[in-house]
Amino acid sequence: MPFGLRIFLLYAVFVGFCAYLVLRTMTAEIKPGVRQTMEETLVDMSHLIAVVVANDVKQGTLNQSQYPRLFRLFGEYVPQASIWGMDKIDANKRIYITDHKGIVILDSDDMALGQDYSRWNDVYLTLRGDYGARTTKLDIDDELSTVMYVAAPILDGDQIIGSVTVAKANIAMQPFIERSKNRLILWGIVLGVVAMLLGALISWRITKALGRLSDYAEQTIKGEKASPPQFRVFYEYGDLAQVIDRMRHQLEGKNYAERYVQSLTHELKSPIAAIRGASEILQTSPEPKSQQRFLSNIEHETKRLHLLIERMLNLSAVEKQQMIENRQSFAIKSACEQAIRAIEGECLQRDITLQVNLHENADVSGDELLLQQAIVNLLQNAVEFSSIGGLISLNCVIKEGLLVLSVFNQGEAIPGFALAKLQDRFFSLPRPSTGKKSTGLGLNFVTEVAKLHNAQLTIDNVEGGVVATMIFSQFKKR
C-alpha cells in the first residue's frame, strides 16, 4: 500500500472518529438545550400568572372573575406566527390553578377541575415552597408524548395560598429539534467531505514528492546524471534530496570502494550463506513447520542485509568527512529532544521507563542532524540491551569544564573482552531479547560523529547496567 494512501487512511479514520464524537455530542445536547429554554419560558409565564391571579385566589372569587373565560380564549387562540420558518398555529399550553390544598380550582382545558393534584410533583413541591416541575408521558409507550409541567406559588405575603402550573407538550419543540439536528448533520457531512478532500490532496502531494525522490534515488543507483528535485511546499523533502545528492558524490570516490570492499564482502558472506542454505533445503520440500522456519531465516537475513547496507552508507558519509564544512551552532538539548521522539514508541512497546535529565543546555558547533542521529543510535542500542520493564536515562551535565552527555541502560554487564571492541566496525553482541546480532556499525558511526564534533565516546559497565558517554571539550554554555 503506498505511503500516501496509508497517511490518508489514518487521517480519514482520525477525522471520521473526531467528527462522529463531535456530532454525537452536539446532537445529544440539542434536545436538552431546547427543553431547558422552554422550561425557562414556562417558569416566567407561571410566575406572571401567579402574580395576576393572586388577589382573586385570596378572596375566593377566581371562578367568578374573567380568568376562566380568558384562559379558554387563550387555548383557542391561533397565533399565525412564523418562527424561523416554522408556522405556529396554536397556543399549545395548558394552565391550571390549585388552592393551598392542591385542589384544582381552574383548568384552561376543563380536564381536572375539582380534582386533587396535591401528589403531582409540580403542585406538591410548589406548595412546600420548593421549585415544582415534572415531565409526564401521556402514552407510556410513546417517547414523544411527554408534557412538561412548571408551577409557581401564589402568595399572600409570605404565605403560599395556591399554585399555578403551565404545561406544554414537548412534541411542540420536536420540529425545531429535528431541524437543528438535520442542519448540524448536513454541515458535519460538508465539513467532513472538505476535510477528506484536503487530506486526499495532501496525501497525493506527499506521494508525488516521494515518487520524485524515489526516481532520483533510482537514477543515483544506476549512476545516471541527475539533479536533486526541488520542493517548494515540502521543503523537508528538498533537504532529503540534497542529503542524497551529497551521499552520492561521496560514494563515487574510488578510495572508499577499495577500502571497504574486503570488509563488506566478509560481512555479506554470512547472511548470503544462510539464505542459500535455507533455499537449498526448501527445494527438498521439507515439512510445513520446517518450511516456515527456513522462510523466517531468509526474511531475517534479508532484513539484516538491508540494514547493513543502510548503515554502511551512513557510515561512509561520515568517514569521508575530514571536517564539517558548514558548521552551525545549535543547542544540544534540541538534538536530544529530537532523538528521544525517535525511540519513544519502542520504549512504550517494551514498557521501558525513559528518564531525561537535561539540566544543562549548551551550544555545540557542528552538524545537528548528524549528532541527533548519533544520540538516536546510543538510545536505540540502550533499548535493545534493556530488559522489558527496564530503565533508560539520558543525562546532560557540565562537569569539570566538559559537556558530558550520557545514556544509561539497566541490563547485563558487557563482557570484558568486548568492551574494547564495541566501537570497531562490524563488531556486535547478541541482543538479550532475540539472541541475534546487529550490523555492528551503529557505535562505529557514533564514534565518527563524535570525532567530527571534537568529542570522545566511552562505554563502561556501571552498577546495574551500562553507560555510554560522549564528552565534548568545545561548547558554549547558554
Structure notes:
The protein is α+β, with helices and mostly antiparallel strands. It folds into 3 domains: 28-178, PAS domain (Beta-Lactamase); 216-319, no CATH class; 328-477, 2-Layer Sandwich (Heat Shock Protein 90), CATH 3.30.565. Helices cover 52% and strands 20% of the residues. It is built from 11 helices and 15 strands. The chain has helices at 3-59, 67-76, 121-127, 174-221, 235-251, 254-282, 288-319, 332-349, 368-384, 416-419, 442-452; strands at 81-83, 86-88, 93-99, 104-107, 133-137, 146-156, 159-169, 328-331, 353-357, 362-366, 391-399, 402-410, 455-462, 465-472, 476-477. The chain has a 5-stranded antiparallel sheet with strand order 4-3-7-6-5. α5 crosses α7 (288-319), α6 (254-282) runs antiparallel to α7 (288-319) and α9 packs antiparallel against α11. The longest helix is centred in the N-terminal third of the chain and has 57 residues, at 3-59. The two termini are 47 Å apart. The model is unreliable at 254-259 (pLDDT under 50).
Q: Which percent range fits the helix content?
A: 40-55%
Structural class: alpha+beta
Tell me the series of helices and strands, N- to C-terminal: HHEEEEHEEEHHHHEHEEHEEHHEEE
CATH class of the largest domain: Alpha Beta
CATH homologous superfamily (4th level) name of the largest domain: PAS domain
Q: What is the number of domains?
A: 3
CATH topology of the largest domain: Beta-Lactamase
CATH architecture of the largest domain: 2-Layer Sandwich
Distance between the termini: 47 Å
Query: How many beta-strand segments?
Result: 15
User: What is the 3D form?
Assistant: elongated
Describe the sheet with the most strands. Answer: 5 strands, antiparallel
- How much beta, percentage-wise? 15-25%
As a whole number of angstroms, the C-alpha radius of gyration is 40 Å
Major β-sheet strand ordering: 4-3-7-6-5
Oligomer: single chain
Uncertain ranges: 254-259
